[in-house]
Amino acid sequence: MLTFYNEQHSLHAGQAEMYRGALVPCFEKPERADFVLSELQRRNLGQIVIPQCVPLMSLERIHSQRYLEFLRHAWPEWVALDPANATRDALPSVWPVRTLRSDLEPVNFSAKMGLYSMDSGTPLTSGTWVAAKAGADCAVNAAHALRLGERGTFALTRPPGHHAGSDFFGGYCFLNNAALAAQHLLDDGARRVAILDIDYHHGNGTQSIFYERNDVLFISIHGDPRTEFPFYLGHADETGQGAGLGFNVNIPLPVGTGSATWLMALETACLRITANKVDALVVSLGVDTFAGDPISGFQLQSADYLRIGERIGTMALPTAFVFEGGYAVNEIGVNVVNVLEGFETAP
Ligand code: Q9C
Ligand code: ZN
Q1: Model confidence, pTM
Q2: What burial class does residue 272 get, using C-beta atoms within 10 Å of its C-beta: 0-12 exposed, 13-18 middle, 19+ buried?
Q3: Which ligand 1 atom lies nearest to the CA of residue 19?
Q4: CA 44, CA 322: separation in Å to the nearest integer?
Q5: What's the whole-number mean pLDDT along residues 237-244?
Q6: Surrounding residues of ion ligand 2, Cβ less than 5 A
Q7: Which end of the chain, N or C, is less packed with Cβ atoms under 10 Å?
Q8: Whose CA is nearest to atom 9 of ligand 1?
């Protein structure tokens, strides 16, 4: 298993997120990737390499130019408003909901923050752009390595990506790493790709990016959006649109779901992928399905992650794992590496 990792992820270190009416320490913190890295090294799961930088044009395959422009310049703009902002993260607080215009880019900085975001839980910091770009590099490199013949690769990235849409951030995500990986596979010659999203939260960004396309099959197993973030997408009746009809599969499960039910959902998802004859697979690998996760409601145990990796490996597809959520930091290394080891040892 070839792992792509760039230590610049740690430049994105938010101070606080809005949570139940208060600013609380960010759940999505640099230690998450550090713990996964040390467990990878401890268990000797293969080489860890620094990714090559990909051109901004690769990001424009998925994200809008004006959104990328905004992200690159957001921090200096924020600090220009007030030098004291250098010690504070930027958080959005106003959004263009129904009836308000989102076609015009406002001049005001907080208005732009709202135009390009979906929640107040995702602080933008001095290092956000550099960290997110380094993460996107990891994802595209992990995809490219499959084209060069690797069987399985891992993009050990943060901030995560699957909530980010073509022109908005949110849910701790800024650039959609899984979407960038899938698009790179297609641009390099794959005819059809599947994205299997097993993070606890629905991958609304990834779904929306590919919703009208038939070259990317998106399948997600997640907490029911009627009660779980991101709330406004991820229902079972969302099956794709136009040419994409039938290429979007949502499997929402109730809070409290345990290993047996979750693994049955994985079986359903894997059968759908196999039936679709794809050339490669991208896995949005979140481990916030773990019983001990502080913000999520499933009950998976650490040993389950070995079975999950094995089942994914059994599909025998070139597979790029892209790191997403998981906030039980003490167990995050074991849980992630269990998936990767299960994949490697699949029969
Ligand atoms: N403020 C991922 O796992 N907030 N994102 C939930 C705490 C959003 C999770 C409530 C959770 C987003 C990649
Ligand atoms: Zn999640």
Answers
A1: 0.98
A2: middle
A3: 1
A4: 19
A5: 98
A6: 199-201, 286, 288, 325
A7: C
A8: 171
